Amino acid sequence: MTFQATPEKGRFITFEGGEGVGKSTQLARLAEHLRDCGFEVVMTREPGGTPKAEKLRAFLLSGRAAPLGPLAEAALFSAARADHVETLIAPALKRGAWVLCDRFADSTRAYQGARGGVDAKTLALLERAAVGDTRPDLTIMLDLPAQEGLTRAASRRHGEEVDRFESEAPAFHDELRQAFLDIAESEPERCCVIDAAMTIDDVARAVQRLVHDRFLAHAAQAAQ
Ligand SMILES: Nc1ncnc2c1ncn2[C@@H]1O[C@H](COP(=O)(O)OP(=O)(O)O)[C@@H](O)[C@H]1O
Ligand SMILES: Cc1cn([C@H]2C[C@H](O)[C@@H](COP(=O)(O)OP(=O)(O)O)O2)c(=O)[nH]c1=O
Description:
- By secondary structure, this protein is of the alpha/beta class.
- The chain has one domain (15-223): P-loop containing nucleotide triphosphate hydrolases (Rossmann fold, 3-Layer(aba) Sandwich).
- Helices cover 56% and strands 12% of the residues.
- The protein contains eight helices and five strands, in the order βαβααβααβααβα.
- The chain has helices at residues 23-36, 51-61, 70-94, 105-115, 120-131, 146-157, 170-186, 200-223, and strands at 12-16, 41-45, 98-102, 138-143, 191-195.
- The chain has a five-stranded parallel sheet, with helices on both faces.
- The structure holds adenosine-5'-diphosphate and thymidine-5'-diphosphate.
- Adenosine-5'-diphosphate (ADP) is lined by residues 19-25, 152-153, 155-156, 196, 199-200, 203.
- Residues 15-206 form the Thymidylate kinase-like domain.
- GO terms for molecular function: ATP binding; dTMP kinase activity.
- One of its GO terms (cellular component) is cytosol.
- Phosphorylation of dTMP to form dTDP in both de novo and salvage pathways of dTTP synthesis.
């Protein structure tokens, strides 16, 4: 599938799901495809994406924030997100780029909310403060049994230490998977679940098809 770039507004696509489901792999594949179509693509990730947010990432993933509790962690993820949105994501969208982001606010809802017990009202306030109107146009939820994702993540790690959340018990990761599915069910117009147990190529094709149907099909028709 190839398309001609049209001078459309930027699109904001997030990839969500548990550990090792293939988010970064698929984000890179979609970026390559969109660039081949002539679009400017910004690849980024959370926590992180800007120098300040990367500093918070190092602190959060080292586990040093864990003793402060899930509410403090949610506030720190949100602080990183506020800087990321303001200095990288919103300006890129404004100039017409496609922004592909590995994890975003749904990860806070799932990890610090569903799993950490921070209430939904508090998280919604933090989300509004950090994100404002820069909400994803599409969220791709990659779904995989938690144990398979952890096995994939372990093979990618090549002996490096596990981070703050990968080291949680298997039940934590099963509940996370369900939390992402629940978010997708509650916002079907934004979220789409893709079976991440398929081969890398098959998942990449499913992602491309989804993005095409959602954003590019009408542009291609209009150009004819
Ligand atoms: N569909 C797939 N089938 C098998 N292995 C995969 C698949 N997608 C990704 N992987 C591998 O699994 C590991 C984790 O993938 P990655 O994209 O880093 O996941 P995430 O970003 O969700 O943590 C990597 O070694 C990657 O090559
Ligand atoms: C963005 C975000 C991430 N996280 C967690 C999820 C991951 O365990 C970790 C980010 O690590 P990362 O290595 O980027 O994710 P993955 O293991 O999927 O490749 O931070 C939260 O707990 N809350 C958040 O808001």
